[in-house]
C-alpha cells in the first residue's frame, strides 16, 4: 500500500534526479572506435556531395545581419526533403574504409551536418535541437545518441561520428568549427560541402570566422567570455585555460589578438541553443 509519506519521498527523489540533470549536454571525451581507422592512402575515390551542395545553395542564408548563417527550414520543399534523405542513403552505401584520410574527413563532416539538418526537419517546428529528445534513456537530451545510420554494417549516432571517429581519428580541433548543431551558438554551417580539395581552406575559414565573432570570443571590459565549446572540449584545445587562449590568439584578428595576449585570468562561457532558423 502506498502511503502519503512514501509517495512524498518518491516525488522528492524524482525532483532531486531532475535537479541533477545538467543544463547543457556534457561533452563526451574522445573515445576511439578502432574499426574506423581503416583507410587507403592510395585511394583516388571521390564521394559525390552534389546533392548536399544543392540543398545548401537553396536554403542556407549566409548574409544575415547577425553574421550567423541561417537555414530556411520552413521553406524546404517535400522534394528537397526527399532529396536530402536520398543523399544520406547514398552516403550510407559508401565503403568509407576504402577512402583516403582527407576524403574520409570530408565525408564524416558532411554526413554529420546533413543528418543534423534532416533530424531538425523531421521534427520541425522546434525552438531548439535540444527539444528533439530521441536519444535512448529516460533523461535523454537531444538527438545525438540516437543510432540513425547504418554504415558498413555498423549502427552510428551523431555522437559516434563526432566523439568516436572525427575527434580521435583525425585529432584536429578545427573539426569543432566544421560540425554544425543547428544552433545560433554553433559555428556556421558552411555554404558548400567539404571535400578533400577544400578541406583545409574551409577548416581555416570556419575557425577564423567563429573566433572573430562575438558568440565565439568577446571581451566585456576585462571579462573574457568565450563559447562553451572551449569549455566543453577544453581537452582538444590544450587541456587548459592557457591552451584555449593560445588557440584563440592563433586565429584572432587584431585588435582582438592583442587584447587576448594581454589578458590574464580565466574566462566565462556561454552558448545559445536557439535554432539557427
UniProtKB/TrEMBL annotation:
Pfam families: DUF547
UniProt key word Ribonucleoprotein: no
Source organism superkingdom: Bacteria
Claim: Acyltransferase is one of the keywords in the record: no
Membrane spanning stretches: none
Stretch forming the signal peptide: 1-26
Domain DUF547: 97-211
Annotated keywords: Signal
Protein name: DUF547 domain-containing protein
Amino acid at each position: 500500500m502506498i502511503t502519503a509519506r512514501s509517495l512524498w519521498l518518491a516525488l522528492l527523489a524524482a525532483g532531486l534526479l531532475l535537479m541533477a540533470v545538467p543544463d547543457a549536454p556534457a561533452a563526451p571525451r574522445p573515445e576511439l572506435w578502432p574499426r574506423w581507422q581503416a583507410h587507403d592512402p592510395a585511394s583516388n575515390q571521390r564521394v559525390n556531395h552534389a546533392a548536399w551542395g544543392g540543398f545548401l545553395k537553396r536554403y542556407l542564408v549566409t548574409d544575415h545581419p547577425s553574421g550567423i548563417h541561417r537555414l530556411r527550414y520552413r521553406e524546404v520543399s517535400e522534394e528537397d526533403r526527399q532529396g536530402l534523405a536520398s543523399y544520406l542513403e547514398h552516403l550510407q552505401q559508401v565503403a568509407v574504409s576504402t577512402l583516403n584520410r582527407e576524403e574520409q574527413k570530408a565525408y564524416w563532416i558532411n554526413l554529420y551536418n546533413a543528418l543534423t539538418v534532416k533530424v531538425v526537419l523531421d521534427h520541425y517546428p522546434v525552438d531548439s535541437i535540444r527539444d528533439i529528445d530521441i536519444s535512448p534513456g529516460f533523461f535523454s537530451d537531444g538527438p545525438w545518441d540516437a543510432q540513425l545510420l547504418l554504415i558498413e554494417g555498423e549502427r552510428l549516432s551523431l555522437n559516434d561520428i563526432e566523439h568516436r571517429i572525427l575527434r580521435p581519428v583525425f585529432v584536429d580541433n578545427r573539426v569543432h568549427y566544421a560540425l554544425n548543431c543547428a544552433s545560433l551558438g554553433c559555428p556556421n554551417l558552411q555554404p558548400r560541402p567539404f571535400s578533400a580539395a577544400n578541406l583545409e581552406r574551409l577548416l581555416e575559414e570556419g575557425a577564423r570566422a567563429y573566433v572573430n565573432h562575438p558568440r565565439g570570443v568577446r571581451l566585456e571590459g576585462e571579462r573574457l567570455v568565450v563559447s562553451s565549446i572551449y569549455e566543453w572540449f577544453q581537452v582538444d584545445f590544450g587541456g587548459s585555460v592557457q591552451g584555449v587562449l593560445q588557440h584563440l590568439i592563433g586565429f584572432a584578428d587584431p585588435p582582438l589578438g592583442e587584447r587576448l595576449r594581454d589578458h590574464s585570468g580565466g574566462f566565462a562561457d556561454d552558448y545559445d541553443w536557439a535554432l539557427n532558423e
